[in-house]
Design brief:
Blueprint (H helix, E strand, L loop, with lengths): L2 E7 L9 E7 L8 H15 L3 H34 L3 H49 L3 H6 L2 H43 L1 H48 L1 H7 L2 H49 L6 H42 L14 H6 L2 E8 L9 E8 L4 E6 L5 H7 L8 E6 L2 E2 L5 H6 L1 E4 L10 H5 L9 H10 L3 H6 L17 H15 L3 E5 L7 H16 L2 E5 L11 E6 L2 E6 L1 H7 L2 H12 L1
Parallel strand pairs: 5-10, 5-11, 8-9, 9-10
Antiparallel strand pairs: 1-2, 3-4, 3-6, 6-7, 11-12
Helix pairs in contact: 1-9, 2-3, 2-5, 2-9, 3-5, 5-6, 5-9, 6-8, 14-16, 18-19
The structure holds adenosine-5'-triphosphate (ATP) and magnesium ion (MG).
Length: 611
Amino acid sequence: MPISATIHYNDVGFYGTPITLRLQLPAMTQHSHAESGIAVYRRLLSYVLPQWRRFVVAALALVVVAGSEALFAMMMKPMLDGTFVERDPTTIAYTPIALIAIFLVRGIAAYSAEYGMARIARQVIKVLRGEMFANMLHLPVSYFDLTPSGRIISKLIYDVEQVAMAATDVVSILIRDSLSVVALLAWMFYLDWKLALVLLIGAPLIALLIRVINQRFRRYSSHIQESMGTVSHIAEEVITGQRVIKTFGGQGYESKRFEEANENNRRLNLKLLSTSAASVPLVQLIAAMAAAGVIALALSQENLSVGGFVSFITAMMMILQPMKRLTKISASLQRGIAAAISIFEFRDTPCEEESGSALLTREHCRDHPISIEIEHFSYPGKEGLVLEQIALEIKPGEIVALVGRSGSGKSTLANLIPRFYELEHGTITVGGADIRSYTRESLRAQIALVSQHITLFNGTIANNIAYGRLDGTPEEAIIAAAEAAHAWEFIRQLPQGLQTVVGENGALLSGGQRQRLSIARALLKKAPILILDEATSALDTHSERHIQQALQLLMANSTTLVIAHRLSTIEDADRIVVLEQGRVLESGNHRQLLTAAGPYSALYNLQFSEK
Ligand SMILES: Nc1ncnc2c1ncn2[C@@H]1O[C@H](COP(=O)(O)OP(=O)(O)OP(=O)(O)O)[C@@H](O)[C@H]1O
Ligand SMILES: [Mg+2]
């Protein structure tokens, strides 16, 4: 636990701002991370290195800022003694000019320092984000399965900001504030070393006293944040769940829940207000007593002039802010390092590694079957076999259908072909060689996949059909694909046609329309291997039949793996494979399986009788 103390000199702040002094002693445990922290910080600074010229300029500006700060306090003595006490005409004439000059120089330096550091920080943020995004595009599918997307996004958004702030803020504070503190302290000791010594010892004691008062204050603030969270959480749930609330009559329950949170929030706010209303005057009283002590001590000595005394007090006030920032530096450093560790960890997550360099071509796929031999497969980080003992061959131009209960492993099997997951125990060959011998890019280029989970991007319909490497396809080809997928009929009716924006993941379209777009995308790719995972499940029978014809055309030229629940759509398949808990139960064509009167025939009769 870090020990911290805060003093609020609410009415005596320099430039009219309240001054807060917080002393924070780093806890012992923080040292154990010191070594890795240094390594991380060094890596972070390597992002700053390319901008070292800008950094040097900003650092020099910081030195000027610190110098002008100390100079201001020092000037107080000759200025006051010269003008009010001795009434020296030269001092009287030059004092206002000197004041303006100091603040002009200080202003320019402060601007250059802040702007320069911010530029460095923004550049670091941009580079880090770019690198992380590039990494994100090549991470294995399993990484996304196991990491909540919110976590990844917060790394990309918040952690990066934190880190860049740590990289530049900490350096600014170290340079500017440590110089200010040293210069001001030296000045105070020069003016009156006894007074300075008393102050140096007394301040932390007062700080500790005030910390106790503020602790209570902070406890309530964090409770208020929590209760605010509950209020907004309930409201959010009511907004998103309003249909459920309406149909299930949840109004009473929600009102009661909200009333509780609302009341709790009111109570906590009042408590906070009463503590703060009491603590501010209390803190001020303590601060005033401390100031009175300093004045009394100063007055009891003969050697301080008026100017010297004011100069001392000014230095004392001015030293508080930089001191506060310096004592907080360890906390912000730790925060920055924690964020940096999180970022670098993401940055270092291995991408999908290439295991082969051969290039799979369309001709290879046309001449060779897809052969799947799985000893067993389970998902990374998850126990239990999902597939076992599967041997399956799909000859070029053949259509093989996978059927089976939900969760039997059909999609898993399909996802192994484009290497979304690594099959460690078993082999899949495509185009005459193990899929691991090809580059992923060339393997995936030969596969058109309509997956069970449709993904559309928030762009136009045209961009969604001609996505990725298909970008730049002539409009006629896009329309032809859309027609074949029976998507053109609805696209045509949209006011903006192909240029209609579909919303986040196609939110502005119906389920069947989305599915038709993803089929059009696959049709446009014209790949020799076609995988259809429940590609037509959201369509009405009429559209499905039409699409079936289009798919039939496509399937004639491809090697196809099709997954379907509605058995009527796969009756014509060359082979039907029935999966059950990751194993093949039976296989054969439609007629053979019906004659065998096994599980397929039972399932078929069930679906048939439902109609
Ligand atoms: N990404 C994943 N990570 C871990 N386990 C998974 C993952 N995807 C699926 N599973 C598990 O693997 C098993 C098979 O899932 P799969 O998606 O292959 O079933 P399916 O036959 O396609 O089912 P459905 O007909 O419902 O689509 C299920 O038990 C599921 O919980
Ligand atoms: Mg599935």
